[in-house]
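User: Quick sanity check before I run a bigger batch. Here is a single chain. Can you write out its predicted 3D structure?
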Amino acid sequence: GTMDLTPFFAPFYMLFFGICLNDAGYGAILALLGAWMLSKNRKPGMMRQAAWFATLCGVSTILFGLLCGSFFGISMSEWFPSIHFFDFQGQFFSIALAIGLVQIMFGMVLKIVMISSTVGFRYSLGSLGWLLVILGGSLAAGLPMLNSGWVIPFYTTSSPAFYATLGVGAVLMLFFNSPGKNPLLNFGLGLWDTYNNLTGILSDVLSYIRLFAIGLSGGILAMVFNQLAVGMSPDIPVVKQLVMLLILLLGHGINLFMCVLSSVVHPLRLTFVEFYKNAGFEAATRVFTPLKNE
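Assistant: Done. Predicted structure follows.
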């Protein structure tokens, strides 16, 4: 009676991976490695799945790296000054929070669908109320915070439509969270859920800052290794180029390994903690049958 969430979080995961690795050069290496693995593993199986995984994550990294203008720690704006690349360091902090909020609300939609299909729509009214409150606040207050030009004229924090959304959402989450119970009991449970959900959702959204932090740290380390290669190379023909090449290969190799590791682990954390929790995922019940000696 549960839902397989894999198709729903997979696009988010690839996006998160590309954000964390955030370099077109690193993404190209990963995509080429994945393509080589695909050519070596043509039969269906775990290795071919891993090859597709590496390829798709590499492509996502290339696209996001090109958007931000990063290629092995080099700013592509130096090569293409006429192109306006996205300022990751200056603009992505708030966007990371917005992406997290979008995924959390998407998880809530899946939770409503799952509850409605298993026990009935009226049991999902409390979750629907929370979704309306968060969605209304995001549209009325969140969008203008991201960009002052994204104000919806008829839906601001002072518009009747906004207050109506909050009112409907508050009634649903305070009085319809447990259908069939006493309204006063529902109200008490709703207040308790309000406290838990406010603190929980706030911490969940803040967890998505890691997308910004990991992407920024990897880019800074790549720049540092480039500077080390230039600054520590002796001013001797041929020797200088060899030392630079050695430092670049060693430095970027270490950074690529660390960044790929972080780009795998942290999106998994966001998936199995923040997304799964807000999607209301519960594993299907199975009878435990221990091994026996016959």
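The first strand starts at residue 70 and ends at 71.

User: Great, the batch can go ahead then.
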